Fold:
Amino acid sequence: MSNDDHPGTNTPPQAEQWVPPSGTPPIPQPSVPKPRAKSRTRMLLLAALLCVIVVIVVIVAVLGIRQLTQTLGGQDPHPSFTSTPTPTPTVGYSGDATSTGSISPAWASGVETAWRIPFPSTKYGSRALTTVEGTTLYALFEDPNPTAHQVTAAAFDISSEQPRELWRTTGPLPNSLGRPRFVSYADQFIVGSIVIDKASGAQSAAPWEGSEALAAVDRIVVVCDHKRACSGWTQEASSWVLQWETTTASQKGALSTLDKLTYPDTPVIGTGEHQAVVLPVDSQTHLAQLIDPYTGQLTNVGSMSPFRDRENNVVSFVITSDGLLAFNDNLFVTYDADGFITGTQAYRQMKRMPTNDGRMPTTAELGEFLSGARPAWSNASVTAPAQAAAGTPFSLTVTPSDGRAPFTLDPGNNDQHHYVSTFWPSEVRASADTSVVYVESVDHANRGNRFFFDTASGVGHGSEEFRDAEDLSWAFDDLAIGVTVDGIVAFMPKAS
Structure:
């Protein structure tokens, strides 16, 4: 409530003098001395001061109530996620909400903030977990008050200029949540052991608290505890039914793959009856284990034996659409989704990465790429120098997959005035015509540096807020969404 809404903030008017009915003589009154002007003035000042104090108390009370209702679990029945003032203006999303897997050429004009969705947090509080399905953004975040033991889920329609809240629900926080992925399961999402209805946001607890849902395959949810146990579950009516339990090798807790070659968004490989979930394990003999989602049967894959006779043995593996590929500096071995070796080949390692354009390669396609071919599944590849000579510009070479000639980009040529001595890419993207190339640096000293390069001018575009956002997801060709400790923020190409 504003000051103008408070009657009584000004000096109250004087009461009108009582007048007797016409013809009636006035009632005699005893003589009363008139008050001095000084006393009258003092009374008016005291009255005004009292009114000001009342107004201040009311304003403080209103602000306190508003702050209270905006905190997670407050009593405000219709809180707004978008009402918190923002430090800089936003422009609103103006795209067509299309997702082809490739970034839009419109990013050549630069980056600006489309909108923000603030939520309660602390400087050291956890960031929101997000996912996008179609034109709906889903978010899950913990109450910043550790004693509340609550999580809030929310859904927003992001197809228009500003995000429109569809629903928001609050539920209990599991004892162990971490940062799990959203696993889509029919009309629900499973996040760790939290089950969320996509249409209403209704939350329920799965019976595997302490474990994490890794993937869903044909109505079976594969759950692992990050230790030595996995299980398969199905939902019948409103109840979860255990299908199998399996003891695994020691689990590392995270999928330790070389993501920047295939950018997997799921640990599921293969199709039909030949599907498997890849488990990262801590084993002296194998790189990974595959688990059959239907039966729980385990298969050891990625034997260390082909690599043991080589010096400086550093073995990695990569998830493909139909299998795995294990490699070191000069040898790679391919495996199908059943765990059988399908090929072994020597190669020469290069700091070359395919762009992330929405499709994962097969093991055969990735093997051809490692052997020197252009990536058939992506728009381009980006090569960093093995070692930049002292005093020479650090440049990246972009090779379009359609046969056009390669060209170079200078990461130091950017509108953020960021000095670049090294800029090892952790993710690269490209528009279909390669008029725009997105590069994000893996340099830990400069974490978060990311630019959209206009390949016509060679200039890289970014922004301070875009640099600081984490866990970027690409909702549409022209809309990227990240998170901070303060909320969710969306970016779009700058209006030309």
Remarks:
- DSSP finds four helices and 32 strands in the chain.
